[in-house]
Amino acid sequence: MAVDMFLLRELVVAIVLFFITRFSIQLLFKKPSRKLPPGPKGWPFLGALTILGAMPHVTLAQMAKKYGPVMYLKMGTCNMVVASTPDAARAFLKTLDLNFSNRPPNAGATHLAYDAQDMVFADYGARWKLLRKLSNLHMLGGKALEDWAQVRAFELGHMLRAMCESSKRAEPVVIPEMLTYAMANMIGQVILSRRVFVTKGSESNEFKDMVVELMTSAGYFNIGDFIPSIAWMDLQGIERGMKRLHKRFDVLLTKMIEEHTASARDRKGKPDFLDVVMANRENSEGERLSLTNIKALLLNLFTAGTDTSSSIIEWALAEMLSNPSILRRAHEEMDQVIGRNRRLEEADISKLPYLQAICKETMRKHPSTPLNLPRVSTEACEVNGYYIPKNTRLSVNIWGIGRDPDVWENPLDFTPERFLSGRNAKIDPRGNDFELIPFGAGRRICAGTRMGITLVEYILGTLVHSFDWKLPNGVDKLDMQESFGLALQKSVPLAALVTPRLSLSAYAS
């Protein structure tokens, strides 16, 4: 019995020593743990999905104050990192640009953008490059914008005359409806050689509603995107709505292309954008655009081209109506440079620094995309000493950067003067100054950046120069609440009374 007890004791000691030794060796040779960025722990299984709320850009900006400029969140089964300062944005969108040049899979790309067959959600590669090249050469680039300057002037003339009619009837002008109608017709003339809405009414308002719904639903944090195993359940009903909306857009786009094809023999003059795309569907790398790719591209151009620019113009007018002294100073500058006997022309903009400052200040405080369109890491990398795993989603909080008191003095105030002198005077919104990146930066910067800036400066300048503005009767203060989506909408659409301030002949052309 004594021998058995001795053997048993020795066996137990040996087993204990074995595990102690093995554990010590593992500790000795174990690779140092890779440190993830700080962030909230969230809930089991759901992670941080439950804490973002209805205004994720605001929540993430508040969380960044606690966790820092590079923040990690577990979103369902996915990793997500958020950049909340100019330096953090530069690290991801410039230093590591190539590693973050793809979009993560999501319901919006699948159900709205023809399964990512468009330019916005396509993988970085040959097809994306072909779509981007065609868009820049024939619609969005500098030379293309010059070529259709007359179209912009023509459609603005239509809009100004319609606003004059409203002023005669003392009717408020609903700004987003008016802008969508004008911009859709501008884009329609460039793409299809025709106005897509002949008269302002139910058809153009329905299109506006469809665009807003697309931008809103595509901006939702959809549970199925972050927990793919339960995506089929569509717990929030987001995907059902996307599928219905996609069918409506597909009918509209198919009709546009069919009518364009049928009218080919009757069209004379310079080929329009769709003509060029159809004739250059294949590149030297053997990449060929399908009809689905072309419809998806038109969807990008019509929706992003109208909604993002119109939202910035609406916010700018709302801020000026809330700050009459800014509107007065803009009028004074324009009267000195242009006078009141003609309309503002695009060539005047370079001589209107205060107007340009108003546009920049609006893009800072009310960026068209509050969270930069998501990207995903192709490989693991390191930022600010933190480990970023492969397949980590990236969001850049453009809204948060624009309202950061460490970046901007009195960021909640609307102060265009901040861009007229000092260190901010040379800041430009085209993606090189990371304090102000309303269109993003890097390879996946918004393809329509140049067009967006041109439209905002020209249309806003024309509206301000052409009219006196005041709130509708009975409205003492504007509701400046936001509505979250891919584009940052004003919760209550802006309506205002306008009075012509130029000579009558200025509105005739």
Automatic annotation (TrEMBL):
Q: Give yes or no: UniProt keyword Ribonucleoprotein.
A: no
Native source organism of the sequence: Morella rubra
Reaction equations catalysed: a 3',5'-unsubstituted flavanone + 2 reduced [NADPH--hemoprotein reductase] + 2 O2 = a 3',5'-dihydroxyflavanone + 2 oxidized [NADPH--hemoprotein reductase] + 2 H2O + 2 H(+)
GO molecular-function annotation terms? flavonoid 3',5'-hydroxylase activity; heme binding; iron ion binding
Q: In which pathway does it act?
A: Pigment biosynthesis; anthocyanin biosynthesis
Q: What role is this protein assigned?
A: Catalyzes the 3'5'-hydroxylation of naringenin and eriodictyol to form 5,7,3,'4',5'-pentahydroxyflavanone and 3',5'-hydroxylation of dihydrokaempferol and dihydroquercetin to form dihydromyricetin.
Write the record's keywords in alphabetical order, separated by commas.
Heme, Iron, Membrane, Metal-binding, Monooxygenase, Oxidoreductase, Transmembrane, Transmembrane helix
**Protein known as:** flavonoid 3',5'-hydroxylase
Which Pfam families does this chain map to? p450 (PF00067)
Q: What is its EC number?
A: 1.14.14.81
Question: What is the uppermost EC class here?
Answer: oxidoreductase
Q: Mind telling me which InterPro entries this protein's record contains? A: Cyt_P450, Cyt_P450_CS
